[in-house]
């Protein structure tokens, strides 16, 4: 199991991805975001997750360039993810959107590129474009986001390449048991967005009690739970103290009973849109 902040997991194509990274959802372009990325890399984070629709790839790229220089790192030491937005799910549109993301980020390649949402009737064509980008060496790994089991089955029916990642909403109120089991069986790695349920779990008594046993915050307990479920996780923060705190989860281990107690908090409750019922 992962032992430290830079521990990695091999995806099914052999590419190694850090278990833990920084998400930048809803963080606007500007100095705060640049500084958050610099802080994260300084604290040892090696994975940054953004998306075209976040509208912040320019600042993410700026933060990456400054962080690499300040820490004496090469581009290859960072794992950078972006995502294809719904408006660009055609074949040519997807290729163009990828180039635009690379230009905004100021990078020569991406480590991971994801289809952001499973728009009915459109994601298969987009996946062909991602397969081309992958085969051409423009991206090291490709995957999807917010796909349910039936979406994955549909996508893989006729696909050349199986997704390496499925990034979904995953937290103690939405444990996605069926999806987790299916992705494991298929050797697709699950990655959690909104692992802290946008702060809604911070006063949850079970999590507080477990945290107090270890001298850990509720956030640290949840992020540790993710890792022990072998789910890659990308908590979002712009505050230096929180970025550092979120990463301090490698010096304790939850017991099987504690893992079960956290699993039991599931209510199939989402803070984000339902992948089977969205209109954007």
Automatic annotation (TrEMBL):
A family per Pfam: Aldo_ket_red
Gene3D superfamilies cross-referenced by the UniProt entry: NADP-dependent oxidoreductase domain
Transmembrane segments: none
InterPro entries given in the database record: AKR (IPR020471), AKR5G (IPR044500), Aldo/ket_reductase_CS (IPR018170), NAD(P)_OxRdtase_dom_sf (IPR036812), NADP_OxRdtase_dom (IPR023210)
NADP-dependent oxidoreductase domain residues: 31-266
Highest taxon above the source species: Bacteria
Protein name per UniProt: Aldo/keto reductase
Organism: Paenibacillus hodogayensis
Classification lineage: Bacteria, Bacillati, Bacillota, Bacilli, Bacillales
């Amino acid at each position: 199991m992962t032992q430290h902040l830079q521990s990695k997991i091999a995806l099914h194509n052999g590419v190694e991805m850090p278990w833990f990274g920084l998400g930048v959802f809803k963080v606007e372009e500007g100095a705060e975001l640049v500084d958050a990325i610099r802080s994260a890399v300084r604290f040892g984070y090696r994975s940054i997750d953004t998306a075209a629709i976040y509208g912040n790839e320019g600042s993410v790229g700026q933060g990456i360039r400054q962080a690499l220089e300040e820490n004496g790192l090469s581009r290859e030491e960072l794992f950078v993810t972006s995502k294809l937005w719904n408006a660009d799910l055609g074949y040519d549109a997807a290729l163009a959107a990828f180039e635009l993301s690379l230009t905004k980020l100021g990078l020569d390649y991406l480590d991971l590129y994801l289809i952001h949402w499973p728009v009915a009737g459109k994601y298969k064509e987009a996946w062909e474009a991602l397969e081309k980008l992958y085969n051409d060496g423009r991206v090291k790994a490709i995957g999807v986001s917010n796909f349910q089991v039936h979406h994955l089955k549909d996508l893989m029916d006729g696909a050349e390449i199986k997704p390496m990642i499925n990034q979904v909403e995953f937290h103690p109120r939405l444990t996605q048991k069926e999806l987790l089991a299916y992705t494991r069986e298929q050797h697709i790695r699950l990655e959690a967005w909104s692992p802290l349920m946008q702060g809604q779990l911070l006063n949850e008594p079970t999590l507080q009690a477990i945290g107090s046993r270890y001298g850990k915050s509720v956030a640290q307990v949840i992020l540790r739970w993710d890792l022990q479920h072998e789910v890659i996780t990308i908590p979002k923060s712009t505050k230096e103290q929180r970025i550092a705190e979120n990463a301090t989860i490698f010096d304790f281990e939850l017991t099987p009973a504690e893992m079960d107690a956290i699993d039991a908090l599931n209510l199939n409750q989402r803070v984000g849109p339902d992948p089977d019922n969205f209109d954007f």
